[in-house]
Design a protein that fits this description.
By secondary structure, the protein is an alpha+beta fold. Helices cover 49% and strands 19% of the residues.
Length: 530
């Protein structure tokens, strides 16, 4: 009788609570949208600005090693062709002379010049913003024109780099960046996922707006400064509002289930008291299980290290080669008395030594017994970057492309760092192995925060898993790999580790279209089970 009364009381309390929560539901959703869109706006602005600046740095490095006009004439064609072939967003690189054109011996069509007086005035008018003397030029400064539309509906941002030789302004290198192609690439590779638009002085330069998006739902407008130009970035929210009526129905159902739960809980108190008598025995069995599981986890981790050892060796070999080269350079400079050149080599040797030290620390941290690590607050970005650094060279050796979609910052995660790294290394190695025979060898590595949880997704373009076998892949010693290729313990151990963290690991797969593994972890400290 008492359990029935408590059940009814819980039911009505749940209804009252649901009613007040529903009154504030819409407002809370708006606040969540504002927070999400603020983070996304900063991420998109940084992504776009960083991409343009990275292109500019490549061109500036090319210009800086031309010490004379003869250097420019002799290396122009090879240097610019190499840069264009390596950069899909550069179609042409031309030169606008500021001295006598006869000094330049360049391929036909490279110099921006004309014999038509009207056309020449037009060229000078469009470049009025460029300094005409060397003393007016800011060192390593990049000048730009306004972004313009091309006949093929693409958008072009022309970067202009001054060439100053012997304190004389020789020319400007003009390199048009295909801005529309660059932004479409960001969308195609999931580096940008929110609807957005970019404009300058009221003129729209680029927009990505799905058909069903209501543009009155704009929640953030920010500014991007690009080499003297100011662009306006508008980002829209694509979060779907939850229906209040649906929330009330679900709350009613939850209240009903809570009432039943209370009744059942009170009915089972006697059984729980009896179970406590066996608590000591259960703890002994649990300790033995944890001990054996820890040994199995460490064994699997060492097996993973063995599989990626070749990539680690290759990663260490590169800085060792650089150290050897600079050691020879130091000996030669000491022999020739060029002591002022030795410092540069020492800096390079120090830098590469630190790089080797970092690799060894990362591998050592991954390989040690995870039972020695306590659960604590960790930075997810640091964990994800460590995992990538461990497997990336194995990917490169096997010619598999690893595409990353990772936010610049994520909330702190309460976890065992080395165990989570082991799970992700297992998933990335499996994804790499699954695309070895595929025509398109691509693996996606994504992460995002949602509903106080961290979502990490590893997807591949491999052959996929037979639907009838999906439920078996987490079974110990079950493997689809050839004999001697895998132990069949990786996914089983990964499932156990994520379960210990009170998280989930899910899989979806389709024959011929690859597989998607999703790891879901709570950010907050897991509750201790009684």
């Amino acid at each position: 009788m008492k359990s029935n009364i408590y059940g009814v009381l819980v039911f009505f309390l749940g209804l009252v609570f649901s009613y007040f929560i529903s009154l504030h539901l819409t407002e809370k959703e708006k606040v969540q949208q504002q927070q999400n869109i603020l983070v996304e706006s900063k991420s998109i602005a940084f992504n776009i600005r960083n991409s343009i600046e990275s292109n500019a740095e490549q061109i500036q490095l090319l210009i800086n090693h031309w010490g004379s006009i003869d250097d420019l004439n002799g290396h122009w064609e090879v240097d610019t062709n190499l840069l264009i072939n390596r950069n899909r967003f550069l179609k042409t690189i031309k030169l606008f002379p500021m001295v006598d054109e006869s000094l330049f011996d360049l391929p036909e069509g490279t110099l921006i010049k004309t014999n038509d007086e009207i056309d020449k005035r037009r060229q000078l008018r469009t470049r009025e913003h460029l300094p005409k003397n060397a003393d007016q030029v800011v060192s390593n400064f990049v000048y730009t024109t306004r972004a313009t539309y091309l006949p093929d509906n693409n958008i072009e941002l022309k970067l202009q780099f001054p060439i100053v030789i012997d304190n004389q302004l020789i020319a400007y290198v003009e390199a048009p960046i295909q801005l529309g192609m660059l932004l479409n690439h960001k969308l195609d590779t999931y580096q940008i996922t929110k609807p957005f638009a970019i404009s300058e002085n009221g003129t729209v330069l680029f927009n990505y707006l799905p058909q069903k998006l209501h543009i009155n739902n704009i929640t953030k407008e920010s500014i991007i400064h690009i080499y003297g130009h100011t662009w306006t970035l508008m980002v829209w929210s694509n979060i779907v509002h939850q229906e209040k009526g649906l929330f009330l129905i679900l709350s009613l159902l939850v209240s009903f289930l809570a009432a039943i739960t209370v009744k059942l809980a009170m009915s089972n108190i006697a059984l729980i008291k009896n179970d406590l008598k066996n608590k000591h025995l259960i703890r002994q069995v649990d300790d033995e299980y944890r001990s054996s599981q820890a040994k199995l986890i460490q064994s699997n981790k060492l097996a993973s290290l063995g599989e990626i050892a070749a990539g680690i060796a290759h990663e260490i070999n590169q800085p060792l080669q650089v150290i050897c080269i600079h050691t020879d350079i130091c000996q030669e400079n000491i022999k020739n008395g060029n002591y002022h050149l030795i410092e540069k080599s020492f800096k390079a040797i120090t830098s590469q030594s630190e790089r080797i030290e970092k690799i060894v620390k990362q591998v050592g941290s991954f390989g040690r017994d995870s039972e020695l690590d306590n659960y604590q607050q960790e930075e997810p970005n640091r964990i994800l970057n460590n995992v990538i650094s461990i497997v990336i060279n194995q990917y490169k050796q096997d010619q598999v492309e690893l595409r990353q979609v990772i936010p610049s910052s994520l909330p702190l995660l309460y976890c065992n760092k080395t165990q989570i790294e082991q799970v992700l290394v297992n998933l990335l190695i499996n994804a790499k192995d699954s695309v070895e025979t595929s025509e398109r060898k691509v693996v996606f590595f994504k992460a995002h925060a949602q509903d106080h949880k961290l979502y990490i997704q590893v997807s591949d373009s491999g052959t996929g898993i037979d639907p009838s076998k999906v439920n078996d892949i987490f079974t110990p010693f079950y493997t689809t790999k050839p004999m001697g290729k895998g132990t069949g313990l990786g996914l089983s151990i990964s499932y156990s580790i994520i379960h210990q963290h009170q998280g989930h690991i899910k899989v979806s797969s389709e024959i011929g279209h690859g597989s998607v593994f999703t790891v879901i972890l709570p950010f907050e400290r897991p509750k201790t089970k009684a």
